[in-house]
Amino acid sequence: MSRIVRSSKYRHVFGTPFKKEDCYDELRITRSAWDSNFISASSTFFAVCVEAAGGGSFAVLDYKKTGKSDPNSPLVTGHKGPVLDVDFSPFNDNLVGSASEDCTAKLWSIPEGGLTENMTNPAQNLSGHKRKVGSLKFNPVANNVLATASTDYAIKIWNVEKGDAVHSSEGAHADIIQSLDWNFNGSLIATSCKDKKIRIIDPRTAKLASEAEAHTGVKGSRVCWLGHKDKLFSVGFSKTSEREYALWDPRDMSKSLGRSNIDSGSGLLLPFYDGDNAVLYMGGKGDGNIRYYEIVDETPFIYYLSEYKSNVPLRGMCLLPKRSLAINECEIARVLKVSVKSVEPIAFNVPRKSDVFQDDIYPDCFAGDPSLTASEWFGGKDAEPKTISLSQGFVAKPKSASFVPEVKEEKALSEKELKDEVEKLQKRVAYLEAELVKRDHKIKELEGSK
Is 267 helix (H, G, I), strand (E, B) or coil? Predict the structure, then answer.
C-alpha cells in the first residue's frame, strides 16, 4: 500500500500567538511605503521603525518590556530622513544598523538595559551613497562587515570599524534594488531588483557573478539564500499579478529548479529561512497569515507544511535567533510580527510530550561568534559560521567589548597648502562678486526698457 502523506517531523508544526499582555502595543509604527521588514531582532533587543516628525527614528525595546508602550519612551533619532531598514549585528546584541532616506547608514551602540533617553549620536556614520539607502545586512561570518543597497543602484561593502566603503558595485543593477541577502558563509550576495532580475554579486570584487529573469510581474520581489543547501529562493509576481515563488541553483541561473503560484494577493511576500530545520516562513504584507514550507534535497525541493492564520494584517516581520527560543517546549522558531500599532511574537512548536532534549529538531545552531575578522574577510579568506549545541540550554557568553570605531586622524595642511587654499577661495569670491555686478547691470537694463 503506497504512502499518501509524506513523512516529516515538521508536518504538525503549529503557530501560537503570545497573550495580549506579552505583546508590545501602542507603538507608532512607520507608515512608510518602502518594502522593508521594518524590524530586526537580537537575543536581547528588537528594533522597529517608527513614525516621527522632523526626521527618522526607530525604537529599541527589551523583550521584558511588554504591554503598552509609553508614548514618551526614548528613541534612536539621529537620522534626518525616515528610517527604512534596521539590522542587528549577529555578533553583538547591542549593535544595530539603520538605513535612511537621508542617504546614510548609521551604527548605534545600545547601552546595557536599553535606552533611557533619546539617542542622537551614532557609533559610526556611513556616508557615500548618492540617494536613499533602502536595505542593509551584516555579514554572517565576518565581524564588522556590512552591505548596504541604495536607490542609486549601488551596493557598498563597508568595514564599519573604519567607516570605509571598501567595495562598491556601481554598474551591476539597472534599477532600484529591492532586497539583498548574504549566503551561508558570507562569500556572495544575492539581490532582487525592480528590473525583474535576481543577481549574484561577488562582494569582494563588486562584480556581477550571474543573473536571471526571475518574476515577470511589475510589483516587488524578494530573494534569500537557503543556508548550506546553497540554493536561492525568490518570491514575486507573475504577468497575471499572482504571487509566486521560484527556486534557483546559483551555479546555473539559466532556468529555475521549480516555480509555483501561491495566490492572487497584492502584498509583497517576505521569506525567512531557518537553516537549522530547513523550514522557510513566509508572510505577505497586508496578510494576516504566515505560511511555512520544508526544503529538501530532492525534486520538487519545496513542500508546503501548514499556515498560521490571523485576521491582523502584517506590515513586517523577522525571526529571532535560535538561542532565544524555549527549547523545553520544542519551539523551533519565533516570529515577531509587525502590525499597524503593535509587535506580536508568534511561537512555532513541534508537538511532542517528552521532556528529553530533542536533538533531531535542535541540531547545532549559530553561536553568535564571528569566524573571521574584517581584514581576514576582505583579504579573501572564507569560513563557516561557528555553531553551538543547545542540549544544555543556551548560556550567554560574557559581554564582549562594546563597538569602538577607529578614529580617523585628519592630516594637517602645510603652509603652502593653506596659502593655495586661501588663493582658491579669494578667486572664487572675486568671480562671484563679478557675477553680482553683471546681474545688477542686467536688472537695470531690463527696468529701463519698460
Answer: coil
